[in-house]
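Hi everyone,

Forwarding the result from last night's run.
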Amino acid sequence: MAEPSKVIHVRNVGHEISENDLLQLFQPFGVITKLVMLRAKNQALLQMQDVPSAINALQFYTNVQPAIRGRNVYVQFSSHQELTTMDQNAQGRGDEPNRILLVTIHHMLYPITVEVLHQVFSPHGYVEKIVTFQKSAGFQALIQYQGRQSAVSARTSLQGRNIYDGCCQLDIQFSNLDELQVHYNNDRSRDFTNPNLPTEQKGRSSQMANAAAIAAAFGGGLPPGISGTNDRCTVLVSNLNPDKIDEDKLFNLFSLYGNIVRIKLLRNKPDHALVQMGDGFQAELAVHFLKGAMLFGKRLEVNFSKHPNITQGADTHEYVNSNLNRFNRNAAKNYRYCCSPTKMVHLSSLPQDVAEEEIVNHLAEHGAIVNTKLFEMNGKKQALVMFETEEQATEALVCKHATSIGGSIIRISFSQLQTIRENSQ
């Protein structure tokens, strides 16, 4: 055991454990003079007024396992005899009260926007500025109040609380910044004292831009495996079949998961392509659902690109203004239908007098069709077509989406239904 010290080292301090929780654990043994939360390490350093108080605490907790909020914590003497200013600053942000708060959000199952943060923090005082960003620690925000007392009040009230039930937990520290610099008013940053700031360069949007649609589509949560925090918009697709693929076919496939800005086939690597999505969330959906999909006899590799965007040029195809982008309208519905390729495709925008035979003839070249069903929804003709394999259905979609049947430009997407029933819709 380390030499007795008035400084106690506490381990396994989870993000849900607040400073007050630790104070309550040790206050029965004497006066606590200093407390440093080492959040990055899930640890804390706590200094008692004297060594006997610390010895009493550790002797007691040798026989009784200390636990906070259902989590066991482990205590021992620190190698420090005294906490210095350097130790207190080891957490990167001190406990020195400041009008700017650094907020880390843990277990972020719902998208968090500037508006959500403003709603949470504004009851404690006038919020002047908010800046959000993604770091290795997770989704973070800097929140600047007009006065320091408002920040102190917010931190005291909100530390360790959840924005939504069971998730989006707030870990709040004082920042050491004096003033936040905000250049744009959008979903990532906001200067409430200057509403005339631009929203940002045209064509750029954040992963939170469609937060309302995303929340509506997924019931507030996100699909398993989707973090919602990715901000990389460009996707690298490899192991393509260069003899059969082109930009429009890639558009038809990737536009299932978001709007497409532009696509570039790499001439020096004919089986590679770059696809720039509308935002990072849409790119994350594409990577998640298309990785390993089969197309034209090849298993696709889909990963985030090191390039933040595709430079416009003679060898790029532009889709940013295409009326075939699916997410300009009914975004929530389109997010809800996102899935990996299936054997079943759903056809819509069909002519009212279309026959099942016409649909089969239109798609039959892509594989054996097992079953079809033509039906009407809200007065509009739609169809389900089931192929033998996911690859056949994928080929039909990439080749025949946005083609014409009876003068109507049809829309094709994957259906999450497993079988076609008589009452299928």
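The mean pLDDT is 86.

Cheers,
N.
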